[in-house]
Design goal:
The complex is a heterodimer of chains A (80) and B (375).
Chain A (H helix, E strand, L loop, with lengths): L2 H4 L20 E9 L2 E6 L4 E5 L11 E5 L2 E5 L5
Antiparallel strand pairs in A: 1-2, 1-4, 2-3, 4-5
Chain B lengths: L3 H4 L2 H13 L7 E7 H9 L10 E8 L1 H4 L2 H11 L4 E5 L13 H6 L4 E3 L3 H10 L4 E8 L4 H14 L4 E7 L3 H9 L7 E4 L1 H7 L5 H7 L3 E3 L4 H17 L4 E3 L11 H10 E3 L2 E4 L3 E4 L3 E3 L8 H4 L15 H5 L31 H21 L1
Parallel strand pairs in B: 1-2, 1-7, 3-4, 3-5, 5-6, 7-8, 8-9
Antiparallel strand pairs in B: 10-13, 11-12
């Protein structure tokens, strides 16, 4: 299943994140795999990137994180 | 509200807009400030302004860090970038911000080694790969971006990377909002709070708005329906005479913020006694510098930057636009001497800048208003 079919709506994607200097470019990504403090993540458009996750640790695969500048700064609550 | 379509559903948007209209007193003028540049972008990109009653005015706030950066800080970055031993790294939008003698893109064309990065961690990687060069990262941004710089510096320190430093221009959101509230130029009714800054700092820092100034604040997400719902929540507060901080963006923002990110920032940064903001002047404790524990990574100390002050071009009215006193199209050089292709002021540079948003998405709206007003 592609990430876009299961992810909450996002304002940005990894290949188009608006103005990264701005405080508002938060990108929701789903954790695909973990290696130490970094996670391979995928955005709603299917783009993948390595994201630092220690600021939201502990992190599990399948979770949706909010990232900014290559670092996860929050997590999206699971839909109920 | 799980998918993009649901956050952008026109039928729901019109229903929310109708509720906003029903709460609008026809004899009252409402001034709501969206603090954040991302909200400004969404408002114009999706035509939200056109869904609101004429009595509800959205005022654009200072929430674009590129736009509030004074020219002197751009010039100092350029001075560091011109050093032959330096690889200078920055986010893409920073490349085109005009200093008093050009921008980073022009300096790069003249031969300086300036590289665009998407993350400060990319800058650290470049430092690892180039041990014989000095790598400097131009750090800029509010509390959303500051944790990524903090984390990068923590990793650099842990790894003992000595050829990496940061030119720190991080700013904080609460002091300029307080300065705006103290400004006699501007009378605001309520605030749309910045969603992703709040992911880090939480909602509690905004309580002064309601407690000290009697202004409601709703922390908002970035989809069109997020913004409309936030405006509705503010209008309900104003209608009922309530004055609170509310969180519309609960799917991401926790009331207490991201405690781990705040701890990381507290270790790496400390508040500057004051910092200059374009259009707002010097504001006490409104910016961050590296703490003594990270002084070895501080580019300002490593390169002894002199702290130059440079006045904005006389024709530029970014200051008035930043304070919400002027609308972007009311600036005398908007769309003529100042365009996204050749920006005179920073508000036209960043895609989140109020002038660029107006230029790209909003012109039809104000042309319609002006034509209408003539009739």
């Amino acid at each position: 299943m592609r990430a876009e079919e299961s992810m909450p709506a996002g304002y940005c994607t990894l290949d188009h994140d608006g103005c990264v200097t701005c405080s508002d470019a938060g990108i929701p990504v789903r954790v695909i795999s973990l290696e130490g403090h970094d996670a391979l993540c995928e955005d709603a458009a299917g783009n993948r990137a390595e994201i630092a996750v220690e600021l939201v640790a502990p992190v599990h695969t399948g979770e949706v994180l909010l990232t900014h500048g290559g670092v996860a700064i929050g997590r999206l609550k699971p839909e109920t | 509200m799980k998918y993009v379509d649901e956050f952008r559903n026109g039928e729901i948007a019109r229903a929310v807009a109708a509720q906003i209209a029903s709460l609008t007193d026809p004899d009252r003028h409402y001034k709501l400030m969206e603090v954040c540049g991302g909200h400004t972008h969404t408002i114009y990109r999706h035509g939200i302004k056109d869904l609101l009653p004429d009595q509800v005015e959205l005022v654009h706030g200072p929430g674009c860090p590129v736009c509030v950066l004074p020219m002197g800080r751009v010039d100092e970055g350029i001075t560091i970038a011109e050093r032959p031993e330096v690889i200078f790294t920055c986010f893409g939008d920073m490349m085109r911000v005009p200093g008093s003698r050009g921008n980073l893109l022009e300096v790069k064309a003249e031969g300086a080694d300036i590289r665009m990065v998407y993350s400060p961690l990319d800058a650290l990687r470049i430092a690892r790969e180039n041990p014989d060069r000095e790598v400097v990262f131009y750090a800029i941004g509010f509390e959303t971006t500051a944790p990524s710089t903090a984390l990068t510096l923590q990793r650099a320190k842990k790894e003992g990377i000595e050829n990496f430093s940061v030119f720190c221009n991080h700013v904080t959101i609460v002091p300029p909002v307080r300065a705006l509230l103290d400004s006699p130029d501007l009378r605001l009714d309520a605030f749309i709070g910045p969603g992703h800054v709040s992911t880090v700092i939480g909602c509690r820092p905004y309580e002064f708005m309601s407690e000290d100034y009697g202004k409601p604040c709703v922390v908002a997400g970035f989809e069109p329906l997020d913004l409309l719902q936030s405006i509705l929540m503010l209008m309900r507060q104003l209608d009922e005479g309530r004055c609170e901080v509310e969180n519309q963006y609960g799917r991401v923002v926790l009331w207490e913020g991201n405690v781990q990110a705040l701890k990381s920032m507290a270790e790496v940064f400390e508040l500057r006694p004051y910092f200059e903001w374009r259009g707002l002047g010097f504001i006490a404790q409104s910016a961050l510098k590296l703490s003594p524990a990270y002084a070895d990574f501080d580019a300002e100390l490593r390169y002894s930057t002199p702290g130059v002050r440079v006045a904005d071009p006389k024709a530029c009215q970014c200051g008035e636009v930043l304070k919400g006193v002027l609308k972007p199209h009311e600036c005398k050089v908007f769309g003529t001497a100042c365009t996204p292709e050749r920006p005179l002021g920073a508000l036209m540079v960043s895609s989140e800048g109020a002038c660029a948003a107006y230029y790209n998405f909003g012109r039809k709206s104000f042309e319609k208003v002006e034509i209408g007003s003539k009739g």
